[in-house]
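thought: fold this chain, then report.
action: predict
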Amino acid sequence: MKAIYTIKDDKKLRCGYTTGSCAAAAAKAALMMLLEDRDIGQVSIVTPKGVTYIAEIVDTKRNPQSVSCSVIKDGGDDIDATDGMKIRATVTLRDDGEIVTDGGEGIGRVTKPGLDQPIGKAAINSVPRKMIRENIVEVLSANGALERGATVIISAPLGEEIAKKTFNPKLGIVGGISILGTTGIVEPMSDEGILGTIKVQIAMQKALGKKVLLMAPGNYGLKFLHDEYGIDEDRAVLCSNFVYDTLKMAEDAGFKEILFVGHLGKLVKVAGGIKNTHSKYGDHRMEILMDTVSEYAADEECKDIESQLSECVMTDEALRIIDSFGYKEKVACRLVEKIKENMEIWTAHSIRSEVVIFADGYSRLCESMGAKDELLKIKGED
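observation:
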């Protein structure tokens, strides 16, 4: 199979394939072998990104009711704890036309709310589940067995041990790894490469004569800007986790005004003075939220809220709890004030920073007083 490469920091880096792609490929191959009674050494699937993945199939095992086989995870040149792992699928036919996907050995289970899957479900995210289903439907249809349906069990030998090297235990995913991926492709990206890309984006905005630099951490912010304000996605600079670095590069480029738009889950860290929002530099989201709640809630109420927040994994769930006590609006607006204050301190007040935060399916939570003016300027510039 022809390798896919990307250029980062003037280096040619090889892309890999997600655990979701591996699971879908293994599931497809297992079902083909079950229905067609033949051995398969390779199978191809089309990833959500549109790239065809030709996977090598290993460790095939058969019995009269099922076939199982594995795909070895290849993370390319990305640093990945799951690189080299075997992702295994065991497929059996059903008689009710249903297609059921679940996790087996080495696949984690969700134990806290707010993740991609509900509590009790295997940590196989929505996109991989869709990939598995589509490939199973394809094979069933090709073999005239769509009315049968199939059960797919995804497993990962050594998954429980490997998961200790990931954030799964902290997220409340126990017993193994997660099956992840939104594009099906793993694209290596170094910090230097990301910062270089951000710098180029800032320079382009300056060259286009933009007065207000629009910042967003990632794709959620871009979608929110488009859906809420009709702002083209190309208008925003994606800062990823590098909030402080992006501010300093904007300062160097001569920008005097910034509008920062992002999901609460990222921006709450900035409210706590965290300059890089990557989890490796610390989380503290619940602590920051609790500190903000404590500015408004009485002592007894604080204890009750804190005990519930301590069980949270995601900020959307934490926000729901805070809202149940009546402090959602106050906390959101105070967080905006803190974010704005920290951003302006980091640039020694050389840049006026305005902030919009959203959560809960792109619902706007709060914005700083000058945010509307900046939005009007941005729309006027475009």
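thought: worth noting. The first strand starts at residue 5 and ends at 8.
final: tokens above.
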